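C-alpha cells please, single chain.
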Amino acid sequence: MSEPALTPMMQQYRELKARDPDALLLFRMGDFYEMFGEDAERAAALLGLALTTRDKGPNAVPMAGFPHPALETYLAKLVQAGQRAAVCEQVEDAKLAKGLVRRDVVRVVTPGTLTDDGMLDPKTANYLAAVVDVGGKLGLAWVEISTGRFSLTGVSRTELADEMARLNPAETLVSETSIDAPWLRALRGQSFTTITSRPSWDFVGEQARNALYQHFGTKTLAGFGIDDQAPEVQAAGALIAYLRDTQKGSIGHMTRLTPYRRGDVLALDEMTRRSLELTRTLRDGKREGSLLQVIDRTCTPMGARLLADWLTSPLTRAEPIIERHEAVAELLKDSSLRTDLRSSLGEAYDLERLAARVGTGRATPRDLVALARTLALLPKIRARLTARSSKRLNELESALELCPEVRSAIESAIADDPPLALKEGGLIRPGYHPDLDELREIARGGKTWIARFQAEQIRQTGINNLKVGFNKVFGYYIEITNSHGSKVPADYIRKQTVKNAERYITPELKEYEDKVLRAEDRACELEYELFTTLRDRVAAEAPRLIQAGAVLAQVDVLSALAELAAMQGYCRPEILAEPVLEIDGGRHPVLDVLMPPGHFVPNDTKLGPDSGSIVVITGPNMAGKSTYIRQVALNAILAQIGSYIPAKSAKIGLVDRLFARVGATDELGRGQSTFMVEMTETANILNNATSQSLVILDEIGRGTSTFDGISLAWAITEHIHDNLGSRTLFATHYHELVELEKTKPRLRNANVAVRESEGEVVFLHRIVPGGADQSYGIHVARLAGVPSPVLARAREILAFLEKQHGPDPGPSQSAGPIRKVKSGRALQNSLFAALPDPLVDELRQVDPAQLSPEQALELIRRLQELADA
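Here you go.
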C-alpha cells in the first residue's frame, strides 16, 4: 500500500526536518510551535505535553505543541535534558503570502550554544568545547557564545580530563571518526558534558583554518600568537563551523582567539579540584558551601563568572599576582573608592551577555534599554578609577571604553519601558522619527474621528443606543438594535445580523477605517524596522561593548576581594620565588565564614628548605587534620589568584602544581575500587610533582591491609623527600611514620593537640610539633553515636591487647617501619585469648639456661610446627 500524499505543510515540515534529523523541530504554526511524529513522542515525554494526532485512522501522525510565548521555558527543559532543538519560524507575513507561508529554521539551540538569560546561570560560564586527535596529539578549543570568549590550547591525553574538569563544558564536539577513541571513552565517563558527533571534515586542517580565516578576516592566526598548524586550531575551526550551522546569524561578536598558556596557571588536576571543593561541594555538587560561594562578594554576574575563572586558573607568575594584590590593597585602604565602585556596579546589567545577544541578533528592546542604562554608569566608574596608584587599576581605567554614541543612539530611540512584543508597537520614543509620529497621529486622530462620527450619527438618526464597534472580520461597523430598525437611514449598508441587532457600514466609515488601520499597521512595521536598524548598528559595536564588560568584571572582582578582606580580616600574602610556605595564624577560608566569629582555631604553617619541606601530621579523627591541610592548600590558591588570605601574615612561594589527595572515593562506575583510585591519584602526584609543587595527602594507604598501607605510605613519603622535594602535608593514622623524622632531615612531625581530663577527651584543634601517641578511636566512636555496649566491649578488648603485648618497645634502629607492628597471628590470638595457645604454653615452660644446643634446635623445630598449625 502506497504512502498517502503529503499536504503542502507536512511536505514543508519534512524538508526542514531532513536538514537536521537529530534535532527536535519546533515548527511555528500561527500562535503555536508544533512537533510531529517521533519528535512529538519524544517532546511529549520530556516536556509533559499532551500527545494528540493529526488526522485519524491508520495514517494518523502523532502531534504535540505549546503556545509560542512559552518557547524559552520549553527550550530550557529540552536543553537540560541534553537535547538539540531547531526553532522554525514563519519568515513571511501571512497576509502577503501566496499559498503556504514560508518557514525556515532560524536557530538550533544546544546545551553549548545558549544565549538567552532564562536558560543560563548568570554566575556560571556556559562553554562549548571541541576536541580533536591529530597524530596522537590532542587539540582543545572552547567558546562561550554568550560572551564571545574564544580560547584554545594543546593537551596530552592525560591532561585532557583535568582541563575539561576546569572548563566544565555544557557540550563537547568530537569528530565522527573519534567515536571509539580511548580518550573519548574516558571523556564520556565525565557526565557533566554532552558529546556531539560532527562530520570529520569540520576537523580537517585546511578546512578548519579556512573557517577561522574567513571568520576573523585574516590570512593567518599569527597575529593572535597562534601557530596555524597546531592541533588546537583544527578544534577551533570545527567550533566555528558548528556555530554557523546552529546560530543562523551573526557571530561577529567573537573577535579574538586567545591562546591558553597552561604554564601560566597553577595546574590543578580533576581530583584536586573536587577534593578541595573549589567551585562545588563533594557531598551534593552544589555551589553553596564551596570556596567560590563563600568568597564571592561580586556585584555583577560577569564579575561572578570571572571570579570562578580566576579560582580555577590561579596564576604562577609573580608579576601579575602582585599587580592584583596591589589593586586589592588600594581598594581595601580607600573604603570610599570601594563603596562608590560597588554601588555603581550593583546597578549594572550583564554587559558581556547583553552585548553578545546584540551581536547574535537576538537582543530585545528591553535588552537595549538595559545596555544603555549600564553604559550610563561607565563615566562615573571611569572617573573613580582615574589617577590610581596601583598599576592594574590604571590599566583598567584606560581600557574602559564609554561607548557614548551607542548609549545616545539607544536612549534617543527606545522607549523607557518597551513591551516584550517586537511587532505590536510601543518600542520607539515619540519625536525620534517624523514619519512614525505622523502615522501615530493619524491613528490617534482616526479614533477620535470615530467617536465624533458615532455622536453625529446618533444626532442625525435619533437612535440613542447606536454604537460604532470594531472586529477583525468586518472592521468598523454601526450597530443598531432591532427595535430601532425603522429609523435606519437609506444610505446605511447592512453587513451582518446578530442577536437583537443589525450591523451596518457607510462609505464614509470605511474610508476612515482604511486610513486608521493602514496608519496603525504601518506604524508597527516602521517601529520594527527602526528597531532592527538600531540593533544592527549597536551590533557593530559588540566587540567594544564586550571589552567594556570585561573591564567591569575585573573591577568587580578586585573590589569584591577587597570587600572580602575588609569583612573577614584577611592579610596580604608576600609572594616569593623560593619554595617556602609560611602562614602565621592561618584559617580555613570556608569555615572562617560559615562558623560564628572567633570559633575557628587558627594554626601556623611553616614549610621550606630551612624549616622542613614535609610535615607528617598524626592524631585522631575529628580533631582537625584534614581541615588543616585543606586550609593550607586553599590559602595558597587564594594567594595566587591575587586575593588576600585569612591569616595574620603569610609568605607564599609560588606553587607550580597543587595536588590534593583527600578522602577515599570509590568510582564503581568506572570499575575502580577505593584503593585503585587512591593509588592512581598517588601515582599522578609522584610522576608529576616538582620541587615547586604543593602536595596535600590525607590517609594514603588505608584502602588496603595494615601492612601494605604502612609500607606504601612509608615509601611514598621517602620518595617525596628524597626525589621530589615538594612542600608536603601528610595527615595519617599510621603513627609508625613519625620514625622518619630521625632519618629524613627535611621531614618534621606534628600532631593535633588533645586535652584529657577525668576520662574526657577534648580536641583542641591546634597543630603542635611532635607525633601523636594515641588515636582516641573509641572516643571518636562515642561522639559518632556508637551504642554504649559496643564501646564498653571495645575498651575491654583494648585493655586486654595492651596487657598482652606490654608497653611499646620503642623505635627500631633500622630504617624500616616496624614500630607497633604486630603479626597477624599475635593480633588474632589476642582477640581470642580465652582459647589455649600451644605455642605460648611451650615457650612458658622453657628455661633457656638449661638448654643444650641440640635441645635448642629441637625446640625451634617444634615451635615452627606449632606456628604453622
